[in-house]
Every structure is written in C-alpha cells, then in structure tokens.
Amino acid sequence: MFYKSIRFKISIVYMAILALTLSAFSVVLYHQVSKSLYENMDTLLRSRAEGIVSAMSTYWVTERLGTMRYYDTGDQVMAGNDQLNFATVAQRWVEARSKDPKLLNLIVQIFDATGEIVASSKNTQGITSVSEQTLFAALQGRSTFDTLTSSYPTKKVQLFRVFITPAVQNDRVEYIVQVGTPIDSITNALNSLKLTLFILFPITVLITGVMGAFLAKMTLQPVNNMIRTIHDITVENMKMKLNIPNTKDEIQKLAETFNDMLARLEYAFTSQRHLFEDLSHELKTPLTILKGEFEVVLKKMRSAEEYEAILRSSLEEIDKMTRLVENLLMLASFESKRIMPERKMLDLSLLIESVTTNMKKVAERKNVRISLEVKKYVEVIGDEKELRQLFLNILDNAVKYTGEGGRINISVEKDNNNATIVIKDSGVGIPQDEIEHIFDRFYRVHGTRKSYGFGLGLSIVKAIVDAHNGSIKVTSSHGTGTSFVITLPLH
Ligand SMILES: Nc1ncnc2c1ncn2[C@@H]1O[C@H](COP(=O)(O)OP(=O)(O)O)[C@@H](O)[C@H]1O
Ligand SMILES: [Mg+2]
Fold first, then answer.
1. CATH number, span 2-188
2. Which contacts of 236-244 are long-range, i.e. CB under 8 A and separated by 24 or more positions?
3. What's the whole-model pTM score?
4. CA of 408, nearest ligand number
5. What's the pLDDT at 70?
6. Residue 392 Cα to ligand 2 middle (Å)
7. How far is CA 225 from CA 6, 219, 242, 244, 364, in A?
8. What are the CA-CA distances from residue 86 to residues 82, 113, 167, 222, 291 (Å)?
9. What residues flank ligand 1, with Cβ below 6 Å?
10. What is the third-level CATH fold of 250-335?
11. One-character DSSP codes across 11-47
C-alpha cells in the first residue's frame, strides 16, 4: 500500500509544509512589493508637484515683473488681466518643460481656484479635471492624493494616481497643480509577480514532493533490506545476521539492536535444545541402569541381601531423576513467577550454619574443609525454604567444583542496610569469558559436563536473589578458585 508507506507520508507532509510556507511567503512578498511600489509612486508625484509649484511661482513672479515694467513705461496698468496672463504663462511654462526628463510620462495640469483648467501637458490621457473633494481640500490649503479613471469612452478604462497641491500666496490659493501617472506600470509589475509566484508555487511543491519521496526512499532502503532479511530468518537459521549499515544513525542502531535480539533468541533456543539433550541424557542413563539391574536380578532367584542391595542402588538412580524433575519444576515455577517469597523475619546466621552442617558430610567425603566466619543475629526478611535452597545450590557447587583437599570459606557480615554473604572456594574456577553465562538456565561451563548437574542451580539462585531484592556477584580465576558475594537487604 503505497499511500500507507512512510515514504508517501513524508512527501505529503513535506509538500504541505512547503505549500503553507510558500503561501505565507508569497502573500507577504506581494503585499510588501505592492506597498513599496505605491509608496514610491506617491513620493515621486508629491516631489514633482511641489517642484512644479515652486518653479512655477518663481517663473510667474519674474514674468509678472517683466510685464509690469513694460506697463510702467507705457503708463498703463492693466489690472484684471492677471488671470488670463497666468493661464498663458502657465501653459507656456508647461509646454517648455514637455521634454524635461523629470516630467516625462507625467500628466501635469494647472487649475485656477475655481477648478477650471488653465494649463496642461499634452499627454493628459483623458484626465481633464480635478475631482470635487480634492479641489475642496486644495482650496483649504491641503494637498491630497486621488485615483482617477480616464474619460475616453472608446478605450479600455485606465486608472491614474494623481497628487493635487495648491499654490498659496498671502493665504490665498492662487492656482492648483495636479500631477498624475497611470497605475498600469504598477499593476503590470504586480501581475507579473503574481504570475511568477503562481507558476513557481506548484513546481516547487511538486519538486519537493518528488525529492521528499526520493529522500525517504533512500533513507528507508536499509529498512526495506532489513525487512527482507528478517523475513528469511527462521528458528533453523537464527545464525543469520542483518547487515549493519555504517551510518551511525537510528537505522544502524535498529540493525544492531535486532542482531542483539537475534543473538539472545538464538542463545535461548540453543539452551532449550541443550536442555532437551541433557534431559534425555540425564534421564536415560539412570533408566538404562535400572533396566539392566532389574533384568540381571530377574534372571534367577536371589537372596534377600542381594535384593536389598539392588533396590538401594535403584533408589539412588530414582533420587537423581527426582532431583532433576524437582529442579525443573522449581525453575518452571520461577519462570511463571508463581512463587512469591513467604516473608518472615529469619536469622541468616543460623540458616547458613544449618545448610553448612548438611553439606559437611559430602565435603568430608572429598576431604574438603569448610570453615565459617559468621556474625550473630543477621536477620533478614525472606522465605526460609528459598534462602536455604539458594545457599545449598552455591555450597553444592563449591564442593562439587573443588578438588580433593580443597577449602571452602563462608562468611556472613552485616552493615546498616545489608547482609553480605561470601562463599569462597579453592576450586577449579570459572574461565573469565564464561562467568557472564553461569546464571543462565542450563548453562554449564565447558568441561564440567562430566560432573553431575543440569546447569539449573545458579539460575535458581539468581531467581531467588532477585525475588529478595538482593544482588549476587562472582569473581573467579581459572584454577585458583571462585567466590560468590551475595547481598540481601536487612529490612
Ligand atoms: N564454585 C564454582 N566453581 C567453579 N565453577 C562453578 C562454581 N559454581 C558454578 N560453577 C560453574 O557454573 C556452572 C553453572 O552452575 P549450576 O547452575 O549450579 O549448574 P551445575 O552445578 O548443574 O553444573 C557450572 O556448570 C560450573 O561450571
Ligand atoms: Mg549446581
């Protein structure tokens, strides 16, 4: 399902984010550009209009002075003709400036105080008057901006931006200047900006989508490879490993973690397989012995003593099998976490002394000496049966893996919080690289398989220590001995 794949989701999200950002960006850009274009235009119009007013006033004054001189010499003062003269003067001024590059493309118009047009540049483009409100404002001495439409009925309607400013002399509005320009240039620029954005928008979003999908595909390629490999892994070929990409990223982590898990699983499966082998072996040997003995016995009548001897040796074999089954049951119950320790205050010193007494007989048979250094009244809360089992298993190992004439030392100490039990032997020791495994179920150190055992003792020990919130540590050197340090909380 492509649309459910991460690749698809990533590209969609990429595209959505980009589309959003681009939209916001485009709106802001368009707005800013349009604002600054209009502002520029207004600034230009205002400065041109003001320039015209000041130039025109100077011009008008000089013209008038010249005329008056003429009138003076002719002894005639032609009052009342100012208006007419101003119109001529203004029109002349405007025409003279028609080539001025500063005024090129600008509509320049001059109105008198009644709003009648008195002078105008050639390119009026249909603008012939000044609007009523702006005239009103100008008569009050205010300058204003306005937007006008062309009045050519045949042509397409055009918009013009105009600035109107009055020329004021002695509190009287002498004339009004209107400077304008078509808005076309701005709308054209804005339209082409809009078009560019509209074209760029989908292209950019599409490219991002494709790139996103491509990137995601590249990133997820190792995951897909992993999926394919994992698909082929079965219980039979658990040795198979994922190729670890050297990318130092989450994918590498994932592959490593998965390989770790595979290793753990493989180990568990191998342990189980060993269990089956060991179990069958351990059960088969006593059964074969029993069968053989019984067959021999049944061949003819025996004396009572002979029967007793046979029965005794049979019982030993049966005991062995019973112990195996018991161990298995114990472990099984730990595995299902059914047993919660029965909590009771008990004296660890007494308990360990009693376990040691039980073990002494076996130890003596091997000429192994057990010595005790036990502090009195080390009281912990726990399950007596379980704690007894714990020390029994460790001592059993200590005796089992210590040769003739060896020594075992047991000490019990306590501090404010913990009881510490150290069981040290002078036995065969455990190879360094196997120490980490000895608490695993069914694990037996290579080479110890000859001696009796199922590799369950220490797993049971670990489970009991954990259930009592304690800890267990092993130090061992191959050939010189092992010590187990167990700490149990006092309260
Ligand atoms: N005191 C010890 N000295 C040497 N090796 C030990 C000692 N205790 C445990 N081991 C090693 O740890 C393994 C696991 O112990 P355990 O679970 O009790 O299994 P088992 O005693 O049935 O072999 C043993 O097979 C043995 O090789
Ligand atoms: Mg053991």
1. 3.30.450.20
2. 238/262, 238/265, 238/266, 238/269, 239/266
3. 0.52
4. 1
5. 52
6. 9
7. 15, 11, 9, 11, 62
8. 6, 12, 13, 88, 145
9. 393, 397-398, 401, 425, 427-430, 438, 443-445, 448, 453-459, 482
10. Helix Hairpins (1.10.287)
11. HHHHHHHHHHHHHHHHHHHHHHHHHHHHHHHHHHHHH
CA atoms of 348 and 388, how far apart (whole Å): 9
What size, in residues, is the chain?
Answer: 491
Mutate to test the pocket of ligand 1, among 334, 393, 438 (most ligand atoms within 8 A of CB): 438
Q: How far apart are CA 251 and CA 195, in angstroms?
A: 44
Residue 122 is predicted with a pLDDT of: 85
Distance between Cα 456 and ligand 1 center (Å): 9
Residue with CA closest to ligand 1 atom 4: 429
Quick: pLDDT tens for 111-160. 998 889 989 998 888 888 888 899 999 999 999 999 988 877 777 778 89
Superfamily, domain 344-489: Histidine kinase-like ATPase, C-terminal domain (3.30.565.10)
Ligand with an atom nearest the CA of residue 448: 1
Measured CA to CA in angstroms, residue 295 lies from 288, 298, 301 at distances of 10, 5, 12
How far apart CA 143 and CA 167 sit, in angstroms, is: 10
Tens digits of residue pLDDT in 459-483: 899 988 988 889 999 999 888 899 9
User: Are 487 and 470 in contact, with CB atoms under 8 Å apart?
Assistant: yes
Which residue, by CA, sits nearest to atom 12 of ligand 1? 438
* 201, pLDDT greater than 50: yes
354-370 pLDDT, tens digit per residue, is 999 999 999 999 999 99
